[in-house]
Every structure is written in structure tokens, then in C-alpha cells.
Amino acid sequence: MRFIIIGGDAAGMSAASRAKRRNPDMEVTVLEKTLDVSYSACGMPYNIADRNRPIDDLVVRRAEVFREKQGIHLLTGHTVESIDIEGKTVNGTLNQGKPFSFPYDRLLIATGATPVIPDIPGKDLDGVMVLKNLDHGRRIKSYLESHSVQKVAVVGMGYIALEMCEAFRARSIDVEMIKPGPVFLPWMDSELSDIIRREVEFHGIQLHLGHGVIGLEKKADRLRLVSGGPSIDADMVLFAMGITPNSELAEAAGLETGFMNAVSVDRYSRTSDDAVFAAGDCADAYHAVTGEKTWIPLALRANRAGWAVADNLSGNQTSLEAICGTAVFKVFDLQVARTGLNEREAAENGFSPAAVTITTRSRAHGHPGANPIRVHMVGDRKTGRLLGVQMVGREGAAHRINAAAVALHTRMTVQEFSRMDLAYAPPFGPVWDPLLTASHQLLKRL
Fold first, then answer.
1. Please, are residues 258 and 266 in contact by the beta-carbon 8 Å criterion?
2. CB neighbour class for 367 (10 Å; exposed up to 12, middle 13-18, buried from 19)
């Protein structure tokens, strides 16, 4: 079998490695347009924060290892430009411009996602950055080393934007953030969002909400960001407005796309063509709470989907579990975690949501080092089902959110969740775990 994979990051290389391991005789070819494969993209903000740490420390496995030890035909610098579904070929050009064409029996589209950057004047100026792949990280780190960057303007206020603010401040760089929307973190409960906002501002970061960026100009040796509100002079501009799935290849080939224009796949990662699979940030998924299609690009899902594709090609039919959108990120000294639906999403999906926000302690009463931890929990009045949880604290939120994720996957009611036997020891939490306290309070509103 000729198995062609477009894209050599998490989903693509996971599929290639597992397919070759399960079936050593399979002809596995990976076509990657960059020169990098298998790296920790999520670690880039923390690497950038440390001027003494090489960006290539993030490489998990180098290309030659896949080639020499696993027998994978890994071709970097190969940009796929079209897929011929009828002829079962992929076509493109090398970085040097030479055309190529490869036939396939089975194809995996693992093209990932692209950072959103508005089509505005000046977007291509030197010093205008995005952060999604390792080469983006190299560019940012190189620019910081070769220029006297005293101030950065960050467009957007999502996960990457906030993590990069911390990275810049770790290097004593001033930061101003700006976004078109009027709400700081619109997906989060306002009480929890306010805590994060105060943390960001405490570290000297100026926030400008409700102002779209109109253009960028070069002023002497600096950049000027022009918006519908304030203009910001900076030495670097980082666009961190989210990402969009790279589904153009699939769409041009006639494959179906769906939610957020991601490539539409079934529970076995098959596209609308039986010979073609899709996995990772370019593909959609089913939501464990709603049962409907969604697009939540996260690293674990990409790796797991790559494995599932390889298993299915090897005759071991593997259906992917639905996702809850479980995520955690760090904002200076805060841990921010979420899983499932917020109130607005619950209402939009036909639930009758009730919610509660509680504040308790990260450790037992009287134990030194305790910090406030806040939990926002959402349930359904009609069924009593647990729908979602958000948490913010200086400790105890990052891993505690996993218990809530398990409850969502098993479709627990709030009452069932409130009876869970959760661990207790004074250094790690109170007798009544914050999640249990929140569930008891939410029961009063259901």
C-alpha cells in the first residue's frame, strides 16, 4: 500500500510512525513544505522567553531519525499544491521550484492551520510576526536578538497572545495589546476573566479593547500600528488573533468541509472520499457534550487522530472519541483551565443552562501557601447533566480540570459528579475539593 501524508507535524508524523510500526512493508511517504517535523509547538512561548535556550531544543525527533530508523520516506521542502481524487495523485513543487507528483492508495491530509492576519497595509513589513510553526519561532527569536526590541504590540488576546505577553515581559520588553472585540475573554465567565485581566495589567501590560487594526506603517526604525482607536508605536508587532484550518487543498479537490470550514471527517477520520483521511488542526471533530461537529484544534487530538488513521489503515478499525475542548494555559502566575461548554454555548445547543461561580482555597484551611481558586460550573436544568467547567487559580487548576473532563466524557449529572471520591490531603486541597463545592452549589440552581 502506498500511503501518502501531506504535513509532517503532530498528526502526520504520528500517523506515519504508527503505520510503519504496525505494517513495516507499507510504503509511507510524508510531504512537508517546511524543513521541520515533530516539534513541540506549544513550548515556543516559553522557549522565546529564554534568550539562552536554542529554539531547536523544541525538536522532538529529527527528520533523519524518521528516515533512517523507521524507514519513512520523509520529504521536507515539498509543497503540495493539488490533489487529484480521480487519479489518486498529489502534485506540487519543491522549494527550488521543481514539480513533483506522487500516486497514492490512501492519503492523509494533515495540513494543520494558519494564523489569522488581516489583509491590511503594512502586514508584510519587517518586524510583523505570527507564531504557529517552528520557523515562526525562529524568526521571532532571531529578530529579538538582532534588534533592540523595547516594545511589542500584540494584536489579539487569546491563548498564544497571553502566553507571548509573558514571554516578552520575561525579557523586559514592554507590551501593549489590542483587539477588535470589546470583551477581554468572551468565552470565559466574567468574574474569572476579570481576575486574568488584573493579572495581565499588574505586569504592566496595556490593554485596548474594541479597536480593529487599520494598517501598519514604518516610522523611522519603528512600526506604527494604526487602529480605529489608539495608534501604537512598537519595535515589533505580533498578530495572535487565532488560527484557521488549512482546508484549501481538500476543498479544491472536491472534499467536503464543515464547521469553521475545517475538513469534514467521520468518527474514523475518513473524509467524503473513502481513500482520503484528514487529521489534526485542519479537520473537524465531534463534541462530547453536544454530539455535534466542532473545530477545536489542540495537540492531543492531533496526535490521537494520527494514530487512529494508522490503525484504520492496518485493519484495526478505530473510532475516535469525541472531544470536550479541554485546555489549560498559563498567564504569568495564574493557571487557567476549561472544559466543555460555557453558558452561551450551552443555550445555543439547546440546553437550559444554570451556572455558579465559587471561590475557595487551593489547600486545606490553615495550611501555609493556600491561594484562592475560582470555579465556574455549568449544568443543564432539564437533565441535571454537567455541561462545562472553568477554573482560575495560582495553583490547583491545571490538573484538577481533568476530573471535570472525565465527567463530561461519561455524561455525568451534576449530582453524580458531586458524589465522586476525590483525593484529599492538606497540601493539595481542602476536604471538599473545589470541584465538589462548586457542584454542591450548582445543584441548588438546577
1. no
2. middle
The H-or-E segment that residue 209 falls in is: strand 206-209
Residue 421 has, within 13 A of its CA and on its CB side, a CA count of 0
d(CA 216, CA 155): 12
Q: Nearest CA to 82 among 268, 282, 255, 275?
A: 255
DSSP per residue, 280-342: STTB-EEBTTT-SEE----HHHHHHHHHHHHHHHTT---PPPPB---EEEEETTEEEEEEE--
Q: Which of 312, 284, 314, 283 is nearest to 109 (CA)?
A: 283
Q: Would you say residue 219 has pLDDT above 90?
A: no
pLDDT at residue 366 is higher than 90 = no
Q: How far apart are CA 358 and CA 378, in angstroms?
A: 12
| Residue 174 cell numbers, joined | 514592554
User: pLDDT (tens digit, 9 = 90+) per residue, 260-284?
Assistant: 999 999 999 999 999 999 999 999 9
DSSP-assigned states of every residue in 90-104: EEEEETTS-EEEEE-
Q: For helices 159-170 and 190-202, what crossing angle results, to 10°?
A: 20
Choice among 42, 165, 282, 324 that is catalytic: 42
Q: What is the pLDDT of residues 69-114, one digit of tens each?
A: 999 999 999 999 999 999 999 999 998 889 999 999 999 999 999 9
Q: Please state, rounded to an integer, the average pLDDT across all residues of the chain.
A: 96
- DSSP H or E stretch at residue 236: strand 236-239
Three-state secondary-structure class, residue 108 = strand
Residue scoring higher pLDDT (96 or 184): 184
Give catalytic status of residue 282 as yes or no. Answer: no
DSSP secondary structure code for residue 267 in this structure: T
Is the alpha carbon torsion for 209, 158, 142, 282 positive or negative? Answer: negative
Question: pTM, whole model, 2 decimals?
Answer: 0.95
